[in-house]
Design goal:
The protein is of the alpha/beta class and 304 residues long. Helices cover 40% and strands 21% of the residues. It contains 12 helices and 10 strands. The strands form 2 sheets. It has an 8-stranded mixed β-sheet with strand order 1-2-4-3-5-6-9-10, sandwiched between helices. Strands 7-8 form a two-stranded antiparallel sheet. α1 crosses α12 and α2 crosses α3.
Length: 304
């Protein structure tokens, strides 16, 4: 059962879908989970795959488009601001606590890929979140810093110069999250399995969405370069934590990041590695997603 809702976020609204168990109207107040999705993704993609399965197992699940992206409001468009991504989660919890049939004392979060880092970062200081689940979590700040051939400080210098030019021209620069096609990837020399699987998911009918532009504002990259999703979690994130990892270690960094998160968190309670799965196969391959959701359901039933 789906409910499409508009969530207030200050002066704008976020577009969201609440996935509810079929018997939601006849049961006691429900546990609920807010989905924090990967960078560039929208609510109809990875988040919906997990939210629908959680709802089928009796847990309400809310998935939304981040501010500035998808069907949510917010200007400029295509901005990936890690701090606002975290605030989006808190606004989603605000909305959940006002919905009849949702127990405001039993709300958790599920973060996937970059959304895993955003979920963790938010849970540190928003203790309305009672349990934190992650699937192939990524600390997007650490990832962006590692991608800079001349180092992050040099990249920030270039971004500063670029923003001066944007202010003068009045035109904002956008870059691709991924090559738009496998052919573009091959021309760029990006033929590794993870890039190939990412494009096959995001940029084809398999997982593509008309609401996902595959573009981000370059000016947001300076925020990403200075962001650390795990800052102070050893002191502040007291909630029980679940980490689910893909067993095939690729180049996304999610395996090492998940292990780091597990070691840093004060209250890790469940670690699962799904043999044979790659990072992007955890997005929609039924065998792997079903295994993850079964484990997540047990985790949320126990801790929410």
């Amino acid at each position: 059962m789906l409910r499409h809702i508009a969530m207030p976020r200050g002066p704008i609204e976020l577009a969201a879908t609440l996935h509810l168990p079929d018997n939601a109207d006849s049961t006691a107040p429900l546990r609920a989970v807010v989905l924090s999705t990967p960078g560039s993704s929208v609510k109809e993609q990875i988040g919906a795959n997990y939210a629908s399965r959680l709802a089928a197992r009796g847990i309400a699940a809310l998935v939304f488009d981040p501010a500035h992206q998808g069907q949510s409001a917010g200007e400029p468009r295509d901005l990936e601001d890690p701090y606002r991504r975290g605030e989006d989660i808190s606004y989603a919890i605000d909305a959940l606590t006002t919905i009849p049939g949702i127990d405001p004392q039993r709300i958790g979060v599920l973060g996937i890929c970059a959304g895993g880092g955003y979920a963790v970062h938010t849970a540190r200081t928003d203790h309305r979140i009672k349990a934190v689940g992650t699937v192939v979590p990524v600390n997007i700040g650490a990832s962006f810093r590692s991608f800079q051939p001349d180092g992050p400080a040099t990249a920030l210098d270039a971004l500063a110069d670029a923003r001066i030019e944007e202010a003068r021209s009045g035109e904002m620069t956008r870059v691709n999250w991924l090559p738009d096609t496998l052919e573009d990837a091959t021309k760029a020399g990006l033929t590794d399995i993870d890039t190939t699987q990412a494009i096959t998911y995001y940029r084809t009918e398999r997982g593509g969405s008309k609401h996902s532009t595959n573009r981000r504002l370059s000016r947001g990259d300076s925020l990403l370069l200075g962001y650390d999703a795990f800052h102070l979690i050893d002191q502040l994130m007291t909630q029980p934590l679940q980490v689910i990892l893909a067993g095939r270690i690729g180049n996304t960094g999610s395996y090492d990041t998940g292990v780091q998160l597990w070691e840093l968190a004060p209250n890790p309670v469940d670690l699962m590695m799904i043999d044979g799965a790659g990072h992007y196969e955890m997005y929609d391959e039924p065998e792997y997603v079903d295994a993850a959701v079964e484990r997540l359901t047990n985790f949320y039933v126990k801790y929410l």
